[in-house]
Amino acid sequence: MNYTIGIDIGTTGTKTLLIDEAGRIRASAVAGYKLMTPAPGWAEQDPAWWARAATTSVREVVESSGVDPAHVAGVSLSGQMHGLVALDAAGKVLCPAMLWCDQRTSAARAWIENTVGMDRYLRTVLNPPLEGFTAPKLIWLRNNKPGIYKKMASFALPKDYVRFRLTGALCTEESDAAGTALFDVANAQWAWDLMEPLGLDSSLFPAVRRSVDVAGTITARAARSTGLLQGTPVIAGGADNTCAAIGAGIIKQGRVSSSIGSSGVIFAHTDTVRTDPQARLHTFNHSAPGKWYLMGVMLGAGLSLKWFRDTFAQHEMDVEKRTGRDAYEQLSRLAEKAPPGAGGVRFLPYLNGERTPHKNPHARGVYFGISQGTQRSHMIRALFEGVTLGLKDSLDLIEDVAGFKVKEIRATGGGARSAFWRQMQADVFGRPVCTLNHDEGPAFGAALLAAAGAGLYPSITAAVNKTVKVRTTINPNMENHKKYLALQKTFRSLYRSLEPEFNTMEND
Ligand code: XUL
């Protein structure tokens, strides 16, 4: 029997899976790390934490599975997108990595848009240089840390940095390169014609592979720290969203997933390049070679719930400590007690600004409609509803742009574990919501890329067809759906009314 390993470099931790060639999970390990927010809107991590988390978790799965390392056919990685790891000529990290949820780069974004012109930019990159993307981070670094920028010889995306540490070879691959917003998405190459106007040296940009390509092999040093054999192939891998999509079987036009983790994502596979004329959706390269996807991203999905738990749910957290009963589970039980519509309370889930559909880093969270009769259960339900309505905004846009009607949605991520939230998704979307035989997130997709890349399967499609199956289908309650359609109107008009306030608030 052959085995593969998938490593997902997430925002709150790294998850590693060891699977057999039939897709069965033999071992899994998680290693957490913190998120640094040294200033409002900043989000940073030390890339060394990722590398350490990857090596310790790989060692753990190799040891706990009892699998002979000689039978590990390949390793691959997935990771949080858009991060910037600045490296010097010797491959040393020059400063903490700026992450996807870092919002400090508004001035750099505006500079890029004015310098190149949005029409020209969108023609090649197909996506605007949003605050969280890598492009404005590079410009921010040049403007604000010129000493570091001068020493920078190349940059890496988070999982590419970890692969570099495992193999000694630095490269990226199409799905993560697309998220830099410096990539020619239709032609799958760096957007070379934009480098000159932006003053970016082409030598900074690493080689681009396909997700299924062998990108290097485990070095002697990495072999010592992970327990793998030196020479084990390391397959390029993909962005966390494409790997999650692969794990959910989204490798065919018409298939769509909703993923609720820290961020919330609606992901639709497309066989051809499709773009939203207003660039509210992202158009990026899939990890399935030669394919693309449309994606709507909300920045504060699970994060909104985490904020509520950490700020207002001390009681539930105490109960969790005493009894082991998950605080989130307790909160969703409480939300269930309130009726759809949450007694008139509305929640706008824009704690860290929003990408889809508003592209506005200045948007903020809002509770609206609180009355004397409002109870805690209403507040919590309103939060679940606000996040789910935010995802519906992306779903509606995707249907418009992709030109097909979404028949069912595959639910993934932490949010899919709650039966209450799955039913709410079905009711808000007005479509059946499915769960899958695996819900291991991007690490599973990365392990499948390793299987395809190492030749255990002829293609990633074959690997997915063999290992990913729909397990359950939840049908929408159409009565509730009607209510949610009405609610969606207020949800949208509230944002529109408040937009001017959001945009000036920061100056107060
Ligand atoms: C996608 C995005 C997030 C991160 C989180 O554009 O920014 O989903 O990849 O891991």
Mind explaining what this structure looks like?
By secondary structure, the chain is α+β, with helices and mostly antiparallel strands. It has 2 domains: 3-248 and 443-470, 2-Layer Sandwich (Nucleotidyltransferase, domain 5); 265-271 and 275-439 and 477-505, Nucleotidyltransferase, domain 5 (2-Layer Sandwich). The protein is 41% helix and 20% strand. The protein is built from 18 helices and 23 strands. The strands form 7 sheets. Strands 17-18-16-15-21-22-23 form a 7-stranded mixed sheet, sandwiched between helices. Strands 3-2-1-5-14-13 form a 6-stranded mixed sheet. Strands 4-7 form a two-stranded antiparallel sheet. A hairpin with a 3-residue loop joins strand 1 (3-9) and strand 2 (13-20). The longest helix is centred in the C-terminal third of the chain and has 28 residues, at 478-505. The mean pLDDT is 96. Bound molecules: D-xylulose (XUL).
